[in-house]
Amino acid sequence: MTQRKPVRASEGLANVRYEIRGKLARRALAMERQGYDIVSLNIGNPYAFGFRTPETMRLAMIENLRNSEGYVHQKGIFPAREAVVMQQQERGVRGVSAEEVFIGNGVSELIGLTLRALLNPGDEVLVPSPDYPLWTASVNLNSGRAVHYPCHPSRSFVPDPQDIEALVTKRTRAIVIVNPNNPTGAVYPRETLAAIARMAEQHRLVVLSDEIYDQILYDDAEFVPMATLVHNTLCCTMSGLSKVYRACGYRVGWAVFSGDTESAGEYLSGLELLSSLRLCSNVPGQWAVQTALGGHQSIRELTRPGGRLYESRQTILDSVARSRYLRLSRPMGALYSFVEVRSDVFPDFDDQSFALELLENKHVLVAPGVSFNVPYRNCFRITNLPESQVLTSVFARIEEVLEAQVAARPELQLVSTAKAQQH
Fold this sequence. Notes:
Blueprint: H1 23-33, E1 39-40, H2 55-63, H3 78-90, E2 101-104, H4 106-118, E3 124-129, H5 133-141, E4 145-150, H6 161-165, E5 172-178, H7 190-203, E6 206-210, E7 234-240, E8 253-259, H8 265-277, H9 289-294, H10 299-303, H11 308-322, E9 326-327, E10 336-341, H12 351-362, E11 364-365, E12 367-368, E13 379-383, H13 388-407, H14 410-422
Parallel strand pairs: 1-11, 3-4, 3-5, 5-6, 6-7
Antiparallel strand pairs: 2-8, 7-8, 9-10, 10-13, 12-13
């Protein structure tokens, strides 16, 4: 009998990780199949928590289904691209036409396409740490090297432009900005973005600005489009319908190129070639873009005081403030909180072990901080999409797990007692 040869995965996957949907998520699914109710806070999926896409967008898609049965232009349908151009113009971005807009199957696909068209083996891309892990994975998948620039908790996760510039080498091709930020909820100040723009222009780096949460802002946070600051190098702005418009399943995102597009003709032709190879992106969802961008922006009702997203975020802030074990840099945008477990109480805390214990014993699924390419192991990310009462219950369960860990280790009890007296 011929011995069967195993089918092995590509060696190119060796440094590719996406733990948000990894082992913990698979274990949570297995538990659900056994009948357990799992509170899944690992993914920012609005539909899973009862949010609906605005009805006007659904109607726009339904009314154009008859126009959605064939392939369309590789860059996307003109009404969708023109709506993106108009949004950019309203924000102060100049020199953009529909020719500089590419529609993709969500921002996720466009991340892969833009990097594939750009990178040669060994090219470096500056990526934030913590990051949305698809960026690091896509750089690695496309033969590049992700170089992580730090966004320290002590700076409210806002990067220091000098730290970034110190990492630039002759192989650096691009810099990734995620603003508002996933996973931290940081919203970068104008002066920080302007300094990064100047640095990118000086070193002729392509700026890849992931702005999928651009209108999800809290309190007095101001979103500054990166494309309004980048002029003398190529800037790619990415956004889509998934988050602001609660339409993850439509799989519609866009990439807009601005700044020095004249010097990028060969690159943009390469990107169009890749877009052509996949024929076109999902057509029905594209018909919702014009209605979405030109219509009533209902997200603002959700993010202002009294709105569901605002109140859920406030519940997270209040729960952390009451805890002896947790800290949190106040998230000013997006749909997440990057919660820190105090290292002075838990000096050897392990986020993955904690997340597994929380899942197995309390039926709550969170994303360990190490999933986001950070060098420390004392954080976890949760989404603020659930209603407030659910989050109150979640933090009660988190406290129970941490209390049990303290009770099991006398040396931690002494530190915890001292912190409680200071609290």
